[in-house]
Amino acid sequence: MLSLRSIELSKKNARIIRTFGKVLFVLYVVFLVYFLFLSEWYGRTGTAEDYRYNLELFKEIRRFITYREQLGMFAVFANLFGNILIFVPYGFFISLAAERRGFFKTLFFSSGLSLCVELVQLATRVGSFDVDDILLNTIGGIFGYILFAVCNAIRRRYHVRRRKKR
């Protein structure tokens, strides 16, 4: 049987974990802003003279796959998988930090943040506006949610076993 003290500790631990998730989330957003808008490694400094944008879904994804030999595997990996991987932490942290979480909420917020990033890139002419990036970033956010759901299920199963041993 659960005691009042163990329930209080459980709530306190949940609050600590959510706070930790919020701190990690803020640090991740700072990294994201730096990486997407300021990083010299991907040529993010300055504005482009002839700005490129893509409004056709799957156009850039097809181009990267078709010309993978000419572009090189690093460029293909960085564009296709990098856009997914960079949003995995977002889906994980937003689920960790939120009291109410869910697949569709993560889907909505991942696509919303990605759209905001692309609009800022369009307005500032840093990087390029690409609907394929919105799709790939959203997929990354969903993978982050799935990773969180798996970790949360493992955590809950561990706590149930621990309680049964008492």
Quick summary of this structure?
The protein is mainly alpha-helical. Helices cover 77% and strands 2% of the residues.
Itemize the secondary structure elements and their pairings.
Blueprint: H1 4-38, E1 53-54, H2 59-66, H3 68-71, H4 73-85, H5 88-97, H6 103-124, E2 129-130, H7 131-165
Helix pairs in contact: 1-5, 4-7, 5-7, 6-7
What can you tell me about this protein's structure?
The chain has seven helices and two strands. By secondary structure, it is an all-alpha fold. Strands 1-2 form a two-stranded parallel ribbon. The longest helix is centred in the N-terminal third of the chain and has 35 residues, at 4-38.
The total of helices stands at 7
How are strands sequenced across the largest beta sheet?
A: 1-2
Say how many strands there are: 2
Structural class: mainly alpha
Q: Stretches where pLDDT falls below 50 for ≥5 residues?
A: none
Write down the Rg: 20 Å
**What spatial form do the alpha-carbon principal axes imply?**
elongated
Largest sheet: 2 strands, parallel
